[in-house]
Amino acid sequence: MPQRLEYPDQLRDPERLAALQQLGLLDSPPDPAFDRLTRLAATVIGTPIALVSLVDRERQFFKSAFGLSEPWRSQRQTPLPYSFCKHVVATGQPLAIEDAREHPLTRDNRAVIEYELIAYLGVPLVTEAGHVLGALCVLDIRPRSWSQAEIEILTDLAASVMSEIKLIARQVTIPEPAGEGTIGLCRSGRCTFINPVAAEMLGYTAGEMVGQSMHDLVHRGRYELNPLPGNACPMCQALQAKQTVQLADQVLWRRDGTSFRADYMVYPVIQHGVVTGSIATFVDTTERQQAREARRAHRQALAEAEYERDRLQRLVAQAPIFCYVSGPEHIYTLANDSYRRVIGGRDPIGKPLREVLPEIESQGIIALLDRVFTTGEPFTGIEMPVMIDRNGDGTLEECFFTFLYQPDIGQDGKIDGIAVYGFEVTEQVRARRDTEASVRPGGERIELLAEVSHLFAEAAFDQQAILETAARYGAGQTGDTCAIRLLSEDDKWLVPVALYPTTPGTRHHVRAWLTGSSLPVDTKHGLWRTQADQPLSIQEYTPEEYRATIGRAARFMEQLGTQSILVVPLRARNQVVGLMSVLRDAQASPFSIEDQRFLQALADRTALALVNARLFQQLGERRQQYQALVGRLLLAQEKERQRLAYELHEDLAQIAASAYQHLQAYAGRQPMPPASDDLDQTAELMRRTIQEARRIVTELRPTVLDDFGLSAAIRLQVEELRATGWQINYREATRIERLPAMVETAIFRFVQEALQNVRKHAGTTHVEILLEQTDQSIRMEVQDRGRGFTPEASISQQVGLASIRAWVDLLGGEFLLDSRPGGGTRLRAEIPLRDD
User: Fold this and answer.
1) How far apart, in Å, are the Cα atoms of 448 and each of 384, 425, 453, 535, 599?
2) Fewest beta carbons within 10 Å, which of 93, 393, 414, 745?
3) Cα–Cα distance measured from residue 829 to residue 473, given in angstroms and rounded to the nearest whole number
């Protein structure tokens, strides 16, 4: 029979025990940081018990105990005969026991006999010096096999435990906090002792420093090697003033001639009223200063991004007509003021289109939206007639709109919604109808204008195609040659953009005329002026009359044999954007009033199509810029959370912890009872400050999300709420794998904000949570049975829900909010998973 081993030498190693005692963890109160890790270990591996065990000379102390039964849960320690972890400490290796009743190391252990602890898995907690302090372990009350994956998970968690222990080790080192150099000086300013941290930062050995003048050795000019005056030296000031001197953002010089920024604290040593020396402590603040500069630059960039986002939002608000509908039900998520005025002031946000505008159900518009959402192909409707209730009294009015239905397609190819851009053209259509009523009785040109409108609709955003179509129909119906000029962006030139000669013989002359023949808008002759906003007809063109004012164009018009000229303005939205000119030679008849009316009607359609195409293009570009800026803003906010968490963890929490240890050390000197009570109260406040700082760090950016992924982070949050009395039904439909960091962050923020809303507004602690992952997407759903609320009011008033929606939109996902007063609330987000 193998003999059971006790390992007395390894367990009672003086250096190991001294390292354990120096940490001050034995008999210390429970710490939420360690409790989270044991709870996570039990949850992830699936055991009822998890411990952080520190093995002392005659006992094992539980710094954290999850699921442990009485009496050990209250006592938080056991004698060594009950310990499994002592074998891990002795060997320094992980120990996996499937059935402790049969294992030679544990079958006689009292924990097996008295408390039926059967299965055990433990990994050592090892310091950087190689001392094994104890073990992180999980236990089960039934036999089980331990997989390699479970051993690796527990090993990773043990590393997190050691990170917490290292933080405590830096805090309890008095008077040498982590990274703090300490130098002792005699009355003359020479070094009497130096700690290893100071020697390493300055690049000297202790032997090289002792006996040297610290002022001459490490103090020089701030940015050069010139000696620092003695009256500017904080160490000299402390000796002279007999008081503590503190200076921030100073410069110390190393042995190799380089320097670093440091914060000083110099304490005079006074005996019998006489200064006999001083103690100087300093901390290298170079990285802290760099981090602050980076944070300052980041905040500036964040402010600029917010300004640009607000600017683009104003541009969208000022657009002619804009709305956004999401999902197959076409639920409104955005509508500017112009759109709200068109629909009679109704509030559409959060409602399906059928509910807001029931009068259009039978007019084919919803069918068009369905087609765009299904096929992903955009649709452009020119002068679409819509019967709409604009006054809210049930009276339908015929209005006309030019619409673009643009599908919002994510990178995964799925359609999230439809952006609707449009312009109301009711007045233009009615005016044109009046004009067309006086055009040829036969109606031939009315049909041609309808055909042109159809061709413009097919051209969509192609401005050149619109211009060439207009020139072709203008020349074909009213003259031999048609030319179109548009105003330049600075409104100073008329630039040739399209022409249509009807015969091959005229092509050379017309092309030569249009090439390089831009004209200033202030040309004196009315033939080229646009300010009048009226057609101009010249029945008999004479070169002598116009040569002085139209320059080179006169020669080309002579070569073409021009007899008559008809010029009409291109008008859109009460503005002239260019000219359409038609030329006839001497063999043709002069222009009639019907020709003028037709050409003006054609020019009006052309101008409107051009303006619409330009505005659609601009709105599309602005929307893309807006989405990109929102994405950068969200990423900047998340980065700022990480920076704030780092700053709290590295600065505030460590300073508070160091102050707490100083208070404990001072209290240990046995002051008078009143002072002792005050110190105890102050120490307790400092301890609570440390816990609160760690809680805030966890809320800003939980480490478990980065270390173990989304599933573990959500389970840990659920367990913490259950521990406070919440009744949560949490389900994972499939095994959740590690996801891209942005996706995990978005889903975790979704759950975090949803649970915050339940806590603040729902009036219940009964919650159902579903996390489901497929090959194509990941879906999260949070539902409560609380008091509910009105969704459209919530989206505009609650920043948290708007932030959730922005995250989901950024990743091309779908967000659903379903709530009503008294009926609870359901939040759902589904985000596609892409290969990239």
Assistant:
1) 18, 20, 9, 21, 11
2) 393
3) 52
Query: SS3 for 409?
Result: strand
Three-state SS at 81: helix
* Tokens 């980076």 found at: 294
The encoded tokens of residue 163 equal: 């990170």
Listed residue (809, 799, 743) closest to 771, CA to CA: 743
How confident is the model over 585-594, as pLDDT tens digits? 766 677 888 8
pLDDT per residue as tens digits for the range 268-310? 777 667 777 788 888 888 877 777 777 777 777 677 767 666 6
**Sorting pLDDT into bands at 50, 70 and 90, what band is 331?**
very high
Q: How crowded is the C-beta side of 527, counted as CA atoms within 13 Å?
A: 22
> pLDDT tens digits, residue range 406-459?
888 766 678 889 988 888 888 878 777 666 555 544 467 777 888 888 888 887
Q: How many residues does the chain have?
A: 836
Distance, in Å, from the CA atom of 526 to the CA atom of 521, rounded to the nearest integer, reads 10
Interval 3-17 mean pLDDT: 70
Both structure tokens of 58: 């005659």
In sequence order, the 6+-apart residues with CB closer than 8 A to the CB of 745 are 638, 705, 807
Start-end of H helices in 515-652: 543-550, 552-560, 593-647
Helix (H) or strand (E) holding 239: helix 234-241
Amino acid letter, residue 340: R
Instruction: List, in sequence order, every beta strand (DSSP E) within 47-131.
Output: 49-55, 59-66, 77-79, 95-97, 119-126
- In order of 659, 662, 681, 776, the CA distances from 666 in angstroms are 10, 6, 13, 61
Q: What DSSP line would sit under 195-214, residue for residue?
A: -HHHHHHHT--HHHHTTSBH
pLDDT digits (tens, 9 = 90+) for 732-787: 876 667 788 888 888 888 888 888 888 888 889 999 999 988 888 889 999 998 88
> Locate tokens 């389900």: which residue?
731
pLDDT score at 654:
66
Report the alpha-carbon angle 364-365-366, nearest 5: 95
What is the pLDDT at residue 8?
A: 62
Structural domains in the chain, CATH included, are 8-172 (3.30.450.40), 180-284 (3.30.450.20), 319-424 (3.30.450.20), 430-617 (3.30.450.40), 702-832 (3.30.565.10)
